[in-house]
Specification:
The protein has helices at about 20-30, 35-45, 50-65, 65-75, 85-90, 125-160, 160-175, 180-195, 205-215, 220-235, 240-245, 250-260, 265-285, 300-305, 315-340. By secondary structure, the chain is mostly helical.
């Protein structure tokens, strides 16, 4: 039999029938006040695959950013021809008389961890480091431009509708009509020759700018259509109508009411768009219209590896594994982000 509670005395009520009231209160308070971002972060942390892939992607970007430091500590660089420079070729030869790497698996040794390049003898490890740096940060810049352009056009067309949406839709269809892969190859020489004399060597920075322009012009349409379709479903919702009735301007409604609700599809699309942009940059260099000698680049390494695949198949092994691991991890990271942003997901 429980004792009566002394209300006037101000005593603390005892637990009735052994019910753990304090524990229940603390549990309830721990679940209160969590924002959608915090809930997304909790769901993401429970996904081990996503966390591991996120760490791998971060490591890639850190390694690419620290490529000069790592190369200096390593004692090699991607530009020295260790197979032809007399200073190195006479003391420690790395190529045979046919221009193929000496030693096992493409010349892997304590001096050259990933071997050397056929014909020239450049160090593959430093070529890969600088190639990652070129490809990753170029792709990050291109993807950011694609996202900004697609989001802006999709928001404007989806919210205002009418003639604005019609003209922006036809503008998008016009760019979608270009065959991207062929247009990449055809348009890159036109862009460079328009600004640079054909008798002069095209500077590396200008090639990077031309690649950015070409990929940007032909890559924003998918994001624009995705954002437009999402905005079309949001602009008639109750909270948007309430903002209109309250007298909010269209740009304030877009910025405060609609844009926060399209962040999830934008973020998910970003995780899928970045790997495809890296492959697009690699394709341009592979086709001979992107980065050229002596700029290290993933695509140029694949182009060289394709030429010597029969004589030295090991040359393409390390760049290929690095690219496959990055693209796979970034795609898996995109899946994990999508599941974390979905409140109905069971993960």
């Amino acid at each position: 039999m429980t004792s009566p509670i002394d209300i006037e005395g101000g005593g603390t009520p005892a637990a009735v029938d052994g019910a753990p009231e304090p524990a229940r209160k603390s549990e309830t308070s721990s679940l209160e006040g969590r924002s959608p971002g915090q809930l997304m972060w909790l769901r993401f942390k429970r996904d081990r695959t996503g966390v591991v892939c996120a760490w791998i992607v971060v490591c890639y970007f850190l390694i690419a950013a620290l490529a000069p430091v790592i190369a200096k500590l390593y004692g090699k660089n991607p530009y020295t021809l260790y197979g032809q420079d007399p200073e190195y070729a006479t003391d420690t030869p790395v190529l045979d008389e046919f221009g193929l790497p000496l030693g096992y698996f493409g010349g892997v040794s304590g001096d050259h961890w990933f071997g050397v390049e056929p014909q020239f003898g450049r160090d593959v490890f430093t070529m890969l480091l600088y190639g990652m740096r070129t490809s990753l940060y170029m792709a990050l810049g291109v993807t950011t431009l694609l996202m900004l352009t697609g989001v802006l056009i999709g928001l404007v067309g989806g919210y205002f509708g009418g003639r604005t949406d019609y003209f922006l839709g036809r503008f998008t269809d016009f760019f979608l009509s270009f065959p991207q892969q062929l247009f990449f190859i055809a348009f890159m020489p036109v862009v460079t020759s328009f600004f640079v004399d054909p008798r002069d060597e095209t500077p590396t920075y200008f090639r990077a700018l031309a690649i950015l322009i070409v990929l940007w012009l032909l890559g924003w349409m998918g994001m624009a259509r995705l954002v437009r379709s999402t905005v079309l479903s949001l602009r008639e919702r109750e909270f948007v109508e309430a903002a209109r009735v309250a007298g909010a301007s269209p740009w304030r409604i877009i910025r405060k009411e609609i844009l926060p609700n399209v962040v999830s599809p934008i973020l998910i699309q970003f995780t899928y768009l970045l790997p495809s942009t890296i492959l697009g940059i690699a394709f341009l260099s592979f086709a001979g219209v992107g980065f050229v000698e002596p700029t290290p680049d993933w695509g140029r390494m694949f182009a060289t590896g394709a030429k010597v695949a029969e004589q030295d198949p090991a040359f393409m092994f390390f760049p290929g594994v690095a690219l496959v691991v990055f693209v796979l991890c970034f795609n898996l990271l995109g899946d994990s982000v999508r599941d974390a942003l979905d409140p109905k997901s069971g993960r």
